[in-house]
Amino acid sequence: xxxxxxxxxxxxxxxxxxxxxxxxxxxxxxxxxxxxxxxxxxxxxxxxxxxxxxxxxxxxxxxxxxxxxxxxxxxxxxxxxxxxxxxxxxxxxxxxxxxxxxxxxxxxxxxxxxxxxxxxxxxxxxxxxxxxxxxxxxxxxxxxxxxxxxxxxxxxxxxxxxxxxxxxxxxxxxxxxxxxxxxxxxxxxxxxxxxxxxxxxxxxxxxxxxxxxxxxxxxxxxxxxxxxxxxxxxxxxxxxxxxxxxxxxxxxxxxxxxxxxxxxxxxxxxxxxxxxxxxxxxxxxxxxxxxxxxxxxxxxxxxxxxxxxxxxxxxxxxxxxxxxxxxxxxxxxxxxxxxxxxxxxxxxxxxxxxxxxxxxxxxxxxxxxxxxxxxxxxxxxxxxxxxxxxxxxxxxxxxxxxxxxxxxx
Amino acid sequence: xxxxxxxxxxxxxxxxxxxxxxxxxxxxxxxxxxxxxxxxxxxxxxxxxxxxxxxxxxxxxxxxxxxxxxxxxxxxxxxxxxxxxxxxxxxxxxxxxxxxxxxxxxxxxxxxxxxxxxxxxxxxxxxxxxxxxxxxxxxxxxxxxxxxxxxxxxxxxxxxxxxxxxxxxxxxxxxxxxxxxxxxxxxxxxxxxxxxxxxxxxxxxxxxxxxxxxxxxxxxxxxxxxxxxxxxxxxxxxxxxxxxxxxxxxxxxxxxxxxxxxxxxxxxxxxxxxxxxxxxxxxxxxxxxxxxxxxxxxxxx
Lengths: 409, 301
What we know:
By secondary structure, chain A is of the alpha/beta class. Chain A contains 15 helices and 13 strands.
């Protein structure tokens, strides 16, 4: 038995495909969905997503489409491609082609069986690529969201990597030129100045020029309102910070990739403590790293898990993090000083995120290669508690993105 | 990328539910089964230059809808590499396929074959009609129409004074410049722009075997044309779907068109496609295979 529903009898429905690579997508996508429902109150949103995005969605009471269980694991693959503070994310992504195609086919089955008015893909690479390769499969309005444009080669990748990144960029440019109808909206999460000035490759356009022609700019989309943390003294008291102590939060995300950085920072603790006697260092080891593997010291706490980490990041005197966009921008929005260590061979963290943070005047970029414990201790002493003069981060990004999307409904 | 990384298999979207070896006359081949139920889609090996991972874009999708069986044919992957031409004849590949079906309790299946695998699939369909419900034949390497003339200029066995173009398809060149040959060959295989990943994959799979084994299997391919192939095709009774790129630089489109005609099959021409549309345009090929399999299910109540 089957049912067919007349066009005018159908509810408005959207399918949100949220990339599981990095947790940031989940937060901002939930914020956009919330704003979208404000504008289109009868809209039903389903999510095609996997761990760790689903964890956030479940907490928020969002509806995860049951076919999500069929998706092949992307974050596990990315982790398997990582080494000591090292993730060659362009090659790791290329080596995910089988998983991406498998996941596109899951999406395709869902889209074939169910009527959605709108598909939204936040860095859902498989969706964007295969819709351009198979434009006849597009049967709903489609929105593409991203926070970076352009694959960039790492210097030690030589000519081959420069050729490959340019080839992928060229294919993307050709896709958009040939089928401008595929992306009904392309929304850049950020501002035009956040886009790097590089070219896509030899004889290819400049990334910023091309992006300005082909994208709308929502401004940054964060999943929270920094005004909620305006009373920092109250927040510090709630989190158990003692008066006079200077709190440094060290966090490297949930994967095992960050273990080496954690160890390096813990090794810097004794010297940092000498330079900053009020120092209290809270190290978030995450589920994959055993806190017992670290030495004990007065003023040093290593915890497997910290509840409401984002509140600590809003209240601390200094944070030490990797180079991922979401955490760095959270710290920027909360005007906290921080040291960030881009993962080696990670072009997005090394170029795109770094460019954006430099524009905000936020954070101090550190090089894992050269940052000995002494260098880190010195940087901690210089940065901790510093008054910052970051450019302020807009708080209406989710609403702006939602407004552009709602035009399609 | 370091050599070590290149050799490490990338994460799969799906891993087999069952796997094992089948041995015939001392030669082992390695099979994998994905999913359960009926019908079985049997993804055949092709020329030993690559192994069953070339179906990586098909397996996860098809296994969500059907039972999928595949195996590494002799000469590459986890299969043995017997020496001598006789070990690589079409007869051996057909018998290996039947042995894998027996070992996995697969009474009958829909065969999917690429290039030489399409030729072996045709032979299986003709000679074992009770075991073959249908056949999808992609870029078939069949002697029903002339090959590309540029591939017939240079002899395979003689040492040449050039290595330009298809002159690289030469035993001596393989023995001395195997990787360069692979890069050339797969560059021709994927004539579509922006196929770097597909080419890298195939070169890496090609490096899992060696030029001597490959030369044996190449010599055995020459034997394929000896039998009256048209008469064989005429015995094919099952539904056939032929997919062939019109820019296939390895096997001319005319060969696929002729195969569709003599088997009474359906030809789908893939305009702009090269020799491996299942790897370069996996969405379309997956959907064509699924539709074909489901059309067979509708036919048999």
